Amino acid sequence: MSWWKKVVYFFTPLSSAELPNPLKEEMEKVRARNKKGRYVADDPSTPDVNEAYTKIPKKRGRPRKKK
Question: How far apart are CA 37 and CA 59, in angstroms?
Fold first, then answer.
C-alpha cells in the first residue's frame, strides 16, 4: 500500500458495515421449546426454515472476583 492510499484511507469515512460494533451481541443457536417446555419439531412443509432451532443472544459471564 502506497503512502497516498494510506492517507486517503485514513480520511475516508467507513461505511456502517465496516465499523466494529461493540454492543452487537453474539447469537447462539438453541433448540426451540413450546410453552410447556417441550422441544418443537421441524415442519417438513417449509424446507427453507428450520423451526426446531432458534437464535438467542449469547449470555456473557460476569468477571470473577480475585481473592
Answer: 20
Q: What is the pLDDT along the chain (67 residues), one digit of tens a residue?
A: 688 888 877 887 766 656 666 666 778 899 999 999 999 999 899 889 888 999 988 877 777 887 7
Buried b (16+ CB within 10 A) or exposed e, 11-40: eeeeeeeeeeeeeeeeeeeeebeeeeeeee
